[in-house]
Amino acid sequence: MPANRQWLLDNRPQGEAEASNFKLVTTQTPALADGQVLVRHHYLSLDPYMRGRMSDAKSYAQPQPLGEVMIGGTVGEVVESRHPKFAAGDKVVGMGGWQEFSVVDANQPGALRKVDTTHVPLSHYLGAVGMPGVTAWYGLVKIIEPKAGDTVTVSAAAGAVGSAYGALAKARGCRVVGIAGGKDKCDYVVKELGFDACIDYKLHKDAGSLSKALKEACPKGIDGHFENVGGMVLDAVLSRMNAHGRIAVCGMIAGYDGQPVPMTYPQLILTNRLKVQGFIVSEHMEVWPEALQELGALVGSGKLRPRESVAQGIEAAPEAFLGLLRGKNFGKQLVKLV
Ligand SMILES: NC(=O)c1ccc[n+]([C@@H]2O[C@H](COP(=O)([O-])OP(=O)(O)OC[C@H]3O[C@@H](n4cnc5c(N)ncnc54)[C@H](OP(=O)(O)O)[C@@H]3O)[C@@H](O)[C@H]2O)c1
Q1: Ligand 1 cavity residues, CB under 6 Å
Q2: Is the pLDDT of residue 322 over 80?
Q3: CA 50 from centre of chain
Q4: What are phi and psi of 8, to 5 degrees?
Q5: Considering the domain 131-282, what is its CATH architecture?
Q6: What CATH number was assigned to the domain covering residues 3-127+306-336?
Q7: How confident is the model over 250-263, as pLDDT tens digits?
């Protein structure tokens, strides 16, 4: 059986996460038991939620245990199988974690899923046609519930979730306005992703200034907003929401290191009779097949062209992850192993 390099969570961050929170080890992959499958990972997914799991603060999920392989989504190829439904060469998606190989109990429901790479590249099953894409779908379709002609907005618009959101909202006839950091990201959001406009929040020193830019980009106000960041961005959006608007609270990346993310005028929720709803995509497995079908069709037809930031080799995982938490990624952050 092959040697397997693995990243363990070695210690919990105090404030910002650091490379020294992780430890690289090499182990031997064990011989397979009945029902197990050996997967060689081609790509590891790096996602903001992993920062939450590194800490032991109360959250919706259990913390990542110290001394264990960092959790995470993976795509790869079956190398050896002792399960009747999987064969060597199958391309699969799973939760193999930050390591080169995983041994998966394929009898566990949802542990391993075969995927078709004829029209959708394997890596996209970790992004637009995977968990981040379904996240965008759930927040837009189930919480924002847009009608054609609505104006909808999203923060972290150039990222894995934000880019899928844009394509899904355009397909529903909405005016879609993104908020992202920097000119390059905003150009990509408009020119390649087909958003109607994108605002570079880094050009604005406070929520008042960002709110003015939103007024220009959203002349009819905002009917639905998908929040990934929190803080100044959410304050500015709240000031432009229309009566009975809907806000899907997906992420608060501005506060993932533990700092407060204040909301300046929560009374706007009342005066505008807003629906503000948080959600966790893994608690809504019932929508995944429908969402994945639509996302796969958007990617297969070229209507959604997701971008990827690809770090090379298992050694690169911690630095790439820290870069993602600081906005250095451009699109879905991956680590390529094969
Ligand atoms: N609720 C759920 O079930 C669920 C599932 C998946 C993801 N999420 C959340 O969705 C959001 C987007 O995830 P993603 O995978 O698509 O990530 P991503 O957008 O690909 O990457 C994160 C981006 O956040 C932006 N950002 C804005 N303010 C930031 C700040 N203060 N510090 C650091 N980054 C900042 C950066 O883009 P800019 O350069 O544009 O600022 C960065 O590139 C995250 O908040 C994540 O936790 C939630």
Answers
A1: 47-49, 132, 135, 156, 158-162, 180-181, 185, 228-229, 250-251, 253-254, 279-281, 324-327, 329
A2: yes
A3: 11
A4: -100, 155
A5: 3-Layer(aba) Sandwich (3.40)
A6: 3.90.180.10
A7: 999 999 998 999 99
